[in-house]
Amino acid sequence: MLIGIDVGGTFTDGVVLDKGRIITFAKEATDEQELSATLLKVLDRLLSDLNSDAIARIVLSTTLVTNLIVTDRGPRTALLLMPGFGLPQTAYDLAPDTYFLKGCIDFRGNEVAPPDTQEILAVINKIKEQGIKNVAIAGKFSNRSQKHELLVKTMLEENYPEASVVISFQIAQQLNFPRRAFTAYLTARTRARWNQFIDDMQEAMKERHINAPVHILKADGGTMLLETAREHPCETIFSGPAASTVGGLALTINDRMNSVVLDVGGTTTDISLIIEGKPLHASQGAKINGKLTHIRSLAVKSIALGGDSVVCNNAGLLKIGPEREGAAACFGGQQATITDAFNYLYELQIGDLSLSAEKMNRISAELDTPVMDLCREVVDKTMGRLQETITGMFKEWEQEPAYRVWEIVNRRAFRLDRIIGIGAAATVIVPRLAEELNIDYLVHQYSPVANALGSSAARPTLAVNMHADTQADLFTIDPGGIQGNLGKVRNLQLEDIKEITRRYLQDIAAERGLGEYADEAQFTREEQFNVLSGWDRMGKLFDVGMQIDPGLINEFKGVDEI
Questions:
Q1: What is the number of other CB atoms lying within 10 angstroms of the CB of residue 371?
Q2: Are residues 394 and 533 both part of a single domain?
């Protein structure tokens, strides 16, 4: 049996999946201040009629790290940058407590300028005086040579042992210094709280005599083991939209229709795209607070519009959201919501229709507008907002390589076939939206818990990138910032480098418990450049990427039909 639990902004859902059938599910209101407690409430409800020995795997999707970042509640964190020469310091507006250090590495990993140890010591003392105990270190081209970052880390450990230190080359090995630095900063800021969450979960599993592996859902729609996730908290951002996307895959397994996944929650709506059975990725990485990162993520967007968005009179004008003040009126809430407007207009018989009528009639009287006209206006504005957002997302999606490749291969403009509705409010909103867009839609009997279903069925993912420099006799592997020597073999070919990359992916996959998926990994990047001096070739540079794509675990064969 598989367990999936998704912590949403409004509700936390959990399912137990056994042989293609959801045998039980649970829902609890999410307490933003006590996410762990909410999650464990759902887990305990799922376990009440189960033998824990029968559980094969548990996957958790949590908003913990996302909340820490977007609400600015993480601890004060210092960012130590070694940007080298070129751009002014004002170009690196990444964190409030940023300190710039001397030292420069070039793109081949050669030292251009050494660090100033006295300057480093002075900065360490400033950080210590201000009581900042979380520090991220990032040097330009540290993914080519780690020695400057390691020097600063060593000095911090010797002179300020209380500090918790993150170095950027262990977080990401890709080029683009600002993204790597910002990713390291976010990691340093969230790691302590994230590790406390992992400790809490591991202790909770022990208390409940659960021996099954526990995974965390990542932003790219894949999973990783809970223990592996300790050093990578930021990979769990946007896990909610990722869960709904994989939930859409789970509801339409072996389906190759181009689909927008619309997860209509109580507070927000998450939107993503599936192209012929594969989720669309954000090729530039996740964007957080307007800044790009090196975090692999699906191409998703969230808007502050949900089924429980309040409908009210605002100084004589109709106002819709973004606030949520509890459940819809038809479910006993105190305020009229979007759900109530749909319920009354279309006589959907959701909850207590008379309560929807009562709240909508009150607002219509306040606005001196016939109640049916008011409901139509709410519906029209909701549909307009969703259509506008989807249209805007397609303009962004058009820039993604996978989207363009589809158009080239199919020799025609991309065509959207369907909307997949996820979330409890999808049954209300998605059929009307599909009618407006004149396309097909799917709202499955499991749509209200599809996020948790997606979590339970998501497969592990892994991306490995290798950079090799035959002249320098050096290679670097990401993740982990592993470095080694090639053995002075100057006649290495691209196929040789691909084979080395494949071996490292298999080794890392085995360490992370992903061995059964290693053979399904595919190459995503193959680049080779000659290094010339005069008329002579002095060596070669290689960049190779390989990954286990997101999808569904091998044992998942789909869910029962409606």
A1: 18
A2: no
